[in-house]
Amino acid sequence: MISKRFIIVALAMFGISALGGYVYFEQYREKVLEVYAFNVNGSSYFIRTPNDMRIVINAGANGAVLRNITGILPFYSRRIDKVMATDTDPRNITGLIDIISRYRVGEIILPQNTIYSLGISTTTDKIYETFQSAVRGSGAKVTYVEGGDVISFDENVSANIIFPANAGEFAYSKSSAPQIIPEINYDQTHFLLLGNATTKIQKYIAKGKTFDGNRCYKAKRVIITANSATSGNIADDLTGRYYADFLIYSKSLTGLNVSTKSRAEDPFYYLPMNNRFNTKEKSAVRAISDGKQLRIDTI
Hints:
This protein is of the alpha/beta class. It has helices at 4-27, 65-72, 90-102, 126-138, 199-206, 236-241; strands spanning 33-38, 44-48, 54-59, 79-84, 104-111, 141-145, 150-154, 157-163, 181-186, 189-195, 220-225, 246-249, 276-278, 284-289, 294-298. α3 runs parallel beside α4 (126-138).
């Protein structure tokens, strides 16, 4: 008869072996760029670079993104290298409060101007006040950016800041507020994170000097939007300048029409349906790049 002590020892050895395998897998993970777009109310992205630098860009309207990130990172790790809040919208920053509180954050990146600093809104949102308090208490370095800046994420991985524009160059409003629009670049692969940008902002960046939509024919480009990819949300000026090979978008599956081919209705009429990925289908869409090739799936 097998003794209770033997069973306990066997289970302990199995647990140690499994943990060792998990740690080994994490330590020797494939050196690729991973970009996740989460299914949230608002926008939320997580980036993990080839050298394991970790960047959170927005985190939705609640703490649900925490579950997604803890499912990706080693359970024993509490490190986030950079957090970027693209704007002051509670739909984007609420979840960041939990991220900043739970993880050891190295740097927090914020837009140079906001609707509050520009006097567009005179009443500060309570959630934004809580977020500001979390930033001050984090001990992290705080960096303010605007269009034209470049943020290094890792060796050969950077974020070109396409927007916000200088306050004198764009007519901001509550609907078209200052927000960070980064393009994440890794060798020949490029990810344009539009978030909730209005068509007014998209038209501006399409003709702006900080926007480089033309690259070599080998480049692979991905547009990621937190909205549905309809003509009401995506400007023709943008798709005409930034020819995407893949689209990641967010649309309710109810009444989803996959047969639209008219440019008037579908700004991505040229893009095959199997190159389009909807975050609403599962919890996230994941893109993996080795710098030259891309593979994208829903998880």
